[in-house]
Write a structure and sequence with these properties.
This protein has 3 domains: 96 residues, Cytochrome c-like domain (Cytochrome Bc1 Complex, Chain D, domain 2, Orthogonal Bundle), CATH 1.10.760.10; 62 residues, no CATH class; 46 residues. It contains 10 helices and 5 strands; from the N terminus they run ααααααααβββββαα. A hairpin with a 5-residue loop joins β3 and β4. α1 crosses α5 and α6 packs across α10. By secondary structure, it is α+β, with helices and mostly antiparallel strands. Strands 4-3-2-1-5 form a 5-stranded antiparallel beta sheet, with no helix packed on it.
C-alpha cells in the first residue's frame, strides 16, 4: 500500500525586519577618541554662534536638520581634538557639499568647537535619532525689516528682483527648503552645485589652467577641465583664484544675525506672484 506524500512544510514565519541601516538612528554614534571638557562660559558663548551660522541646517543643538546631518553622530566631530579637524573644515568649507567657508575669529571658532563637543557628550548619554528643525523657528521674522535688509545692507537687490527671478519663490520653495536656498543657493539638499565655481591655477612654471573647481580644502585644490580631466595640486605649490558666482551669498553668512536671517526669510515668504510664461 502506497503512503501518501508528506505535505510540504509550512513557510517559516518571517522575523521582524531590523531598522534600515540608512537611518542615522539605526547606527551607533561614533565614539569620541579623546574625552574633552570645556569651561561652561565658553560652551554658552558657542551656542548662539552655532545657532546663527549652522543651526538652520544642522539644528540649533547640532543633532541634525531636514537638510543637514546630525553632527553629534559625525565621525569628524568624534575624532576631533580641540578643533584640529573641525577648524579646517569650518575655515575651508566643503564646496562639493554646498558648505561655504566661515571666517570666524579664533575665539569664536573655539567657542563653536566647545559647544559641538558639549552637545556630542550630552547626546552620547541619550538614546534616539536625528531631530528635525522645529518649523516654528522659521516663522518669527519681520517681513518689512527683511525687505529693508534685502534692498539695503544685504545688497540682495543688486542681483535679484522680487518682480522677476524671485516673484514666485514662495510658491516654488517652502519652509526650510526656502531658507536653505536663501543661504546656500547652489545647493539642493546637499547635492551637487548647480552653479559651477571656476578656478584658475597658476603652476610654478607660469602655466595657467582653468576649469571647474572640483575640490578644495586647506591642503588641496583640484579642477576639472572642459574635457573632463581631473587634476589636483597641493595649495602650497601653486597660486590660484576662485570665481564663484554665488560668493556674495557666502560673504553674507558671517554677517547675518539670527534676526536678519529670519527677517529676510519672512520677506521671501511673501513673494507669491506667479510668473507668467
Amino acid at each position: 500500500m502506497c503512503q501518501a506524500p508528506a505535505p510540504p512544510p509550512a513557510p517559516a514565519a518571517q522575523a521582524p525586519q531590523p531598522p534600515s541601516q540608512a537611518s542615522p538612528a539605526a547606527q551607533a554614534a561614533p565614539k569620541t577618541v579623546a574625552v574633552q571638557t570645556y569651561p561652561a562660559e565658553q560652551v554658552r558663548a558657542g551656542a548662539p554662534l552655532f545657532a546663527a551660522q549652522c543651526g538652520f541646517c544642522h539644528g540649533r543643538d547640532a543633532t541634525g536638520g531636514q537638510t543637514g546631518p546630525d553632527l553629534t553622530r559625525s565621525p569628524l566631530v568624534a575624532e576631533d581634538v580641540r578643533g584640529d579637524k573641525i577648524g579646517p573644515v569650518v575655515r575651508s568649507g566643503r564646496p562639493d557639499k554646498g558648505m561655504p567657508p566661515f571666517n570666524l575669529a579664533e575665539a569664536d571658532l573655539a567657542a563653536v568647537v566647545a559647544f559641538m563637543h558639549d552637545q556630542k557628550a550630552k547626546s552620547d548619554l541619550q538614546q534616539g535619532g536625528r531631530r528635525a528643525v522645529d518649523i516654528s523657528d522659521l516663522q518669527t521674522g519681520d517681513a518689512n525689516a527683511g525687505q529693508a535688509f534685502f534692498n539695503g545692507a544685504g545688497g540682495c537687490a543688486r542681483c535679484h528682483s522680487p518682480s522677476a527671478d524671485l516673484a514666485d519663490v514662495a510658491v516654488r520653495l517652502k519652509g526650510l527648503e526656502l531658507l536653505q536656498r536663501m543661504l546656500y543657493p547652489n545647493n539642493r539638499g546637499g547635492g551637487a552645485a548647480s552653479t559651477p565655481i571656476k578656478a584658475v591655477v597658476t603652476l610654478p612654471s607660469g602655466e595657467t589652467l582653468t576649469g571647474r573647481l572640483a575640490y578644495r580644502d586647506e591642503f588641496t585644490i583640484a579642477v576639472k577641465n572642459a574635457d573632463g580631466w581631473y587634476r589636483s595640486w597641493r595649495t602650497s605649490d601653486v597660486k590660484f583664484t576662485i570665481d564663484d558666482p554665488l560668493e556674495a551669498h557666502a560673504a553674507l553668512l558671517p554677517k547675518y544675525t539670527d534676526t536678519d536671517m529670519h527677517n529676510v526669510l519672512a520677506y521671501l515668504q511673501t513673494l507669491r506672484q506667479e510668473v507668467k510664461k
